[in-house]
């Protein structure tokens, strides 16, 4: 008997390692982006994604959209916000998705105390079971939450980043390891990698 193909959600869970609300947030964001842009998973650099956090949801975005660090079409801005920008090179359209954290992670003192006990390793077996049940229920709600309740989507003007380039590697004069030329520095007239480079500053 042949196994049924895995759903994108199952693939995202497998890639991430476990199911959690954060992963569900990224999954919904990616679904909404693909729907609005009328795009499918990016085989190359047809899509560009800019994420403003490094939370669990980014893994789901990579799985669904095909935007990855390795292909150069996933860009990380360390701003700590639930904001995601997606651009389609084929249609020259882009959108910004903002997820209100208070809507997807509403505060509930009782549930917050339970979560704290679980994360602290002090929860009982019964509390652990309750926590898993609550978390599974919340994941399902996130996966099926109406878009207007889940996030704000706006079409934006977007300056597409250049496509990923290939660079020559140069050998570091200190450690002997090779580094891509744009990341090398010059020290005593020789190329060195960033690990071996000693920056000079007078506070300017």
UniProtKB/TrEMBL annotation:
Where on the tree of life does the source sit, at the highest rank?
A: Bacteria
Domain Formylmethanofuran dehydrogenase subunit E, chain residue ranges per copy: 15-152
- Domain named Zinc finger DksA/TraR C4-type is located at 169-202
Q: Which Pfam families match?
A: FmdE, zf-dskA_traR
Q: Is Zinc-finger tagged as a keyword?
A: yes
GO function terms (MF aspect): zinc ion binding
Spell out the InterPro entries in the cross-references: FmdE, FmdEsu_dom, tRNA_methyltr_O, Znf_DskA_TraR
Question: Which keywords label this protein?
Answer: Metal-binding, Zinc, Zinc-finger
Keyword check for Metal-binding = yes
Protein name per its UniProtKB record: FmdE, Molybdenum formylmethanofuran dehydrogenase operon
């Amino acid at each position: 008997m042949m196994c049924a193909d895995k759903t994108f959600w199952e693939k995202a869970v497998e890639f991430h390692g476990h199911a959690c609300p954060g992963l569900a947030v990224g999954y919904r964001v990616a679904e909404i982006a693909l729907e609005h842009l009328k795009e499918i998973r990016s085989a190359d650099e047809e899509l560009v994604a800019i994420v403003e956090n490094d939370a669990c949801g980014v893994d789901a975005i990579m799985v669904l959209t095909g935007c990855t660090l390795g292909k150069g079409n996933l860009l990380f801005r360390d701003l700590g916000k639930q904001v995601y920008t997606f651009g389609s090179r084929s249609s020259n359209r882009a959108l910004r998705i903002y997820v209100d954290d208070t809507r997807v992670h509403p505060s509930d003192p009782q549930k917050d105390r339970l979560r704290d006990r679980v994360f602290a390793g002090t929860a009982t077996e019964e509390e652990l079971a309750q926590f898993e049940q609550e978390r599974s229920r919340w994941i399902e709600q996130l996966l099926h939450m109406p878009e207007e309740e889940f996030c704000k989507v706006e079409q934006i003007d977007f300056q597409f980043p250049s496509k990923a380039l290939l660079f020559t590697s140069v050998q570091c004069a200190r450690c002997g390891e090779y580094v891509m030329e744009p990341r090398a520095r010059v020290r005593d007239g020789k190329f060195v990698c960033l690990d071996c480079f000693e920056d000079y500053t007078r506070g300017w």
